Amino acid sequence: MNSNTPGQATTKAAQRRSNARQVATDAPRRIIKWTVVGVVVAVIVGGLYAIFRADTDSTASNPGDYQTGSPGPGEQAPEFTLPSTTGEEVALSDFRGDNVLL
């Protein structure tokens, strides 16, 4: 019933042994590969954490620690007139009493 000849059975057994050796040599490579990938990911995540953590610790997060020009907050701005996008002249005094961001 078995159509394999003795030579074919030996060849198949040798092929199975060869495949087993190949799997055994691939396992350490896979372990090394995934270890390297894990280390690279950990370094990237740690670096991003350090960068964004440093941003939140900066003095810019305290609103009272920035420098302002002249005139300062609460002081009256000098009068000036500029052309608008429609070509008309717009003066700062046109907005007296309104909050204006310069």
The helix/strand order is HEE
Care to count the β-strands?
Answer: 2
Poorly predicted regions:
none
Shape: rod-shaped
Q: Compute the average pLDDT.
A: 79
Helical segment count? 1
Rounded to the nearest angstrom, the distance between the terminal CA atoms is: 96 Å
Q: How many domains? A: 1
The value of Rg in angstroms is: 37 Å
* Strand adjacency order, main sheet: 1-2
Strand content: 5-15%
Q: Give the class from helix and strand content and strand pairing.
A: mainly alpha
Largest sheet: 2 strands, antiparallel
Q: What is the percent of helical residues?
A: 40-55%
Explain how this protein is built.
There is one protein chain. With 102 residues, this protein is mainly alpha-helical. The chain has one domain. It has one helix at residues 6-56, and strands at residues 81-83, 89-91. A two-stranded antiparallel sheet has the order 1-2. Strand 1 (81-83) and strand 2 (89-91) form a beta hairpin. The radius of gyration is 37 Å and the shape is rod-shaped.
Summarize this entry quickly.
With 102 residues, the protein is mostly helical. The chain has one domain.
Tell me the layout of helices and strands.
Blueprint: H1 6-56, E1 81-83, E2 89-91
